[in-house]
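lol ok so funny story. i was supposed to be doing the assay writeup but got distracted and ended up predicting the structure for this chain instead. priorities right. anyway since i did it might as well share w the group, maybe its usefull for someone
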Amino acid sequence: MPQVVIANRLRDGIVVFLGADRRWMERVQDCAPAISPEDAEKILDLGLQAERDQEVVGPILADVEQRDDGWFPIKRREAIRAAGPTHRADLGKQAED
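and the output, tada:
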């Protein structure tokens, strides 16, 4: 199962994903997921190092699936985190549509 690292950026609390170029991206669609368990472990290690460097907090692996318009989290918790607050559709990433 493809996986990405999801975390919260410390300076503003925004949910971010570890991108293919090892930079933190605000959209999961901008990531290149790890396909193998070994690659997933490597990117999680990078996320944990970023936590030690106080860039992000709470890095975890999230399962993703590819759809017509990119990668999306499978589990509801990560899907909600990726989209933004659920209490107001005019806020967060869902407001950008």
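The chain has a mean pLDDT of 88. The chain has one domain: 3-96.
back to the writeup now i swear
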